[in-house]
Structures are given as structure tokens and as C-alpha cells.
Amino acid sequence: MKRLKLLLFFSVLLCGNAIVAQKADTLKPVTVTSLVILGTIQDAGSPQIGCTKDCCRKIFLQPNKDRMVVSLGLIDPVNNKKYIFEATPDFTQQTKLLKNFSTFNTKETPDGIFVTHAHIGHYAGLMYLGKEAMNADSIPVYAMPRMKNFLEQNGPWSQLVKNKNIALQEMNNKKEIQLSTNLKVIPFTVPHRDEFSETVGYTIIGPDKKVLFIPDIDKWQKWNTNFIEAIAEVDYAFIDGTFYDAAEINTRDISTIPHPFITESMKLFKDLSPTEKKKIYFIHFNHTNPVINKKSKQYRQVVQNGFNIAVLNEVIKL
């Protein structure tokens, strides 16, 4: 009887963990429409340039391959399509990773790139599609009107357009984009530092599941949307977890780099049911964020509170 109870206990744990992380050297290509985590770190990466703190010192000497800038991959084996969200500084590795997760062709480039906004970690990787690198042929890049104009009017990005390395696809707020019979994407604007472009999040809709992706937002209170209702409408939510708390930025003015602290988000969502909390995965971690370390007390606190930390190579069946 005791053994049976143990088996039942572990079965519940396994069944409850709908997302599975894979090791980079033993990736198994997905066979059904799926979303994969291709990166979890904030724009400037980890280790971050100029950092002399303990969080970066050892990593400069022994780089951690898991610390790639925030990105999602979308794979539809039925229609032989794959897409990537964000063109990061790690774009070269992430497109290869996306290909390795795919079973249906050997094409190196995705069938489309979705960009959230004009901050370096989210569009700088487009440079690898130019003549100095891949010299790609008309890769669709989905962008909001201001973002599209930014790419068209400013070098070196304008050269990608002129040389037809990329083909800009204009998006509109809350207007659905049908990618295939299995996939839809809906962009929506969120408040953020919009110096050069709008900032958007995405609702990603598969055959059976919906995913919310908001890697950057100022503060939840500034968004003209009820976040509790937004969570209720999806099955997974990957949200801004840039900083754990104010201790990370003790020498900087948070108003110049506004993000919701993970501690603030956990307080805001504390009354959600355990099922709703389990939908939430923090992502987009600054190099100082202690939750990057699974052994940290902050990581344990997030998990004990019923939330999750996004991990590279996690797979979600949609």
C-alpha cells in the first residue's frame, strides 16, 4: 500500500508538469504543434558587459550555454512551418536550435520572425540576415507600424529591406494573424519605453492551447487590461520577470528602467487559484536576477508560491 501511494504521488507530479525541458545534447524533435523556449535572459545577456559582480565573474571564464536572450520558437509539423519570436543577439544559435527541434525540413531560417519592440535584445539579431552573414531571401518579419517604419528608415536595417533579405509584414493591435491551419497569433500593445517603436505582447493560439507572451512591460497597473482576466483566457503565460526585487537596482532609478518586480507580480497574483498560478512562467531575467540560479532562495520562493521560472529548451504542446 505504501509503495502504491508513492507511485500515485509521483504520477500526479509527472502529469501535472505539462512542460518538459530537454538537454541541448539530446533534443528530441517535436512531432505535434508546439512552442519551445529558446532563451530566457534580458537583452544584454548573461554575463553582461562591464559586470564585475559575482553573478557574472565566473561565467565570463566558463560561459553558460543556457543563458541566451529571451525568445520563443513555434513549430507546426503538420504544415511544415516554424516561427521565432524575437531576433536576439543569440539569433544564430536560436535558429539552429529551432531547426533541431523540427522534423520536416533542413531549412535554416524560420518561416517568419515576430518582433515585440525596438530594444536591442529583441531585433538586433536581424543583422545576421544581411549580406555580411546569411544574405537571406525575403524572410517575413512581423512588426507593428512604428517598428516597421523604424526598420525601413534607419540603417543598417533599411539595407535588409532594400536588399530583400527581409520582407516586412505590418501588424495591427489585436488583429489576428493566421499562420497555418494550426496556428494563429494576436499582437497587442503594452506600456513600455517606446523610444523608437510600440511594444507588443502576443497571444499564440494552437489547436488546443493558448499562450500569452509579454517579455517587457512597465508596470501591470499601467496596462489598460485586466491581467487576471487575461490569465484566465490562456493556458500558459510567459511574463516579464526582469528583476526579482528592488535590491538589484539599488544604484539606479527604476523609473528609467520600469519593469514589474517578480515580488510585485507574486503579490498581485497571490489570490489566484493554484491552477491559475501554475500558468505563470517568469522570463526575461536580468543578469543580476537570483532566480537564474535554481539553488537560490529566491528561485525556491517563486516555486513555493505556486509560480514557475522559464527554462531553455522547455516544450509546450499546443
Tell me about this structure.
There is one protein chain. This protein has 318 residues and is α/β, with parallel strands linked by helices. Helices cover 25% and strands 20% of the residues. It contains ten helices and 15 strands. An eight-stranded mixed beta sheet has the order 1-15-2-3-4-5-6-7. A hairpin with a 5-residue loop joins strand 8 and strand 9. The longest helix has 15 residues. The protein is globular.
Main traits of this protein?
318 residues, alpha/beta, Metallo-beta-lactamase, Chain A, eight-stranded mixed beta sheet, seven-stranded mixed beta sheet, 15 strands, 25% helix, globular, disordered N terminus
User: Strand fraction band?
Assistant: 15-25%
Shape: globular
Supply the number of structural domains: 1
Secondary structure tally, helices: 10
Distance between the first and last residues' Cα: 37 Å
Q: According to CATH, what is the topology?
A: Metallo-beta-lactamase, Chain A
DSSP E strands, number = 15
CATH architecture verdict? 4-Layer Sandwich
Average pLDDT, to the nearest integer?
Answer: 89
CATH superfamily: Ribonuclease Z/Hydroxyacylglutathione hydrolase-like
